[in-house]
Amino acid sequence: MENTPSFAISREPGFGFPIREGMPVSLKCDVDSNPKAKPIWQKDDADPPVQQTPEGFLNFTEIRREHSGWYKCIARHMLGRFSSIGYFLNVHDMEVTQEPDFDIGELSSTGRQVEVSLGGAVQLACPPGTTGCWTRVEAGTGRLEPIGASQELRLDNVLYQEGGEYRCVSPSKESIKRLDAIRNALSVQVVVTDKDFMHFAGRANEFQLLKSGADKFT
Fold it and tell me: Cross-referenced PANTHER family, in alphabetical order (predicted)?
């Protein structure tokens, strides 16, 4: 059975950790499709600044400010050309001596909307270093409806009624304070459409729900 590509982008150090000049950084793109399709990295819709490995890695031995920008992964499949969600890599000056626990600018720049096709799948994950679980915001009342005790939330065979706002919330007061600083980045709007593509967001330890152009060309 033919499956259109879905994408999972990961980073080392993990998402939310501030990136400074001179640090080693790796980005990885995994593509799940049938037949198999190879990942191809792009930065700002052009070739990336470093050569990618056959396994889908972009390895920066000493990252620089000019490496900041929008990264995405594309795949050429027998059904067309597909693209992952975009990811904004934010590289800070080396002179920074005091940094937040999370790169708030990077997290908030990701946007808060995920578009998924009717019958498609989407996976959300709380930022690394936090303790939380996913809830759904009830329309009209604003009440939080728990939908699992895990930091990951996967929706398969999505229906129209599953569209709406989802939040990662923390049970502890200490974690709530940490999450409050980036609460806008932790509220995700899932939009269900009848288009024949999907935006697929990440795996565990990822938080990268970016507004971008998953595109298909036939």
Answer: IG-LIKE DOMAIN-CONTAINING PROTEIN, NEPHRIN
Q: Is the pTM of this model over 0.90?
A: no
Q: Which long-range contacts (CB under 8 A, 24 or more apart) does 104-109 make?
A: 104/181, 104/182, 104/185, 106/15, 106/16, 106/18, 106/19, 107/15, 107/16, 107/182, 107/185, 107/207, 108/182, 108/184, 108/185
Question: Mind listing the pLDDT tens digit of every residue in the chain (218 residues)?
Answer: 778 888 888 889 887 778 899 999 999 999 988 888 999 999 998 999 999 999 999 999 999 999 998 899 999 888 888 888 788 888 888 764 444 444 433 433 334 566 666 777 777 777 666 667 778 888 777 777 777 667 777 777 878 788 888 877 765 555 455 545 444 444 566 665 554 333 333 332 233 333 233 333 32
Q: Which residue's entry shows tokens 């400010």? A: 65
Read out DSSP for 105-136? HHHHHT-SEEEEETT--EEEEPPTT---EEEE
- The DSSP secondary structure of 144-208, one letter per residue, reads EEE--SSSEEEE-S--GGG-EEEEEE-SSHHHHHHHHTTGGGGEEEEEEE-SS-------TT---
Contact 116, 195 (CB under 8 A): no
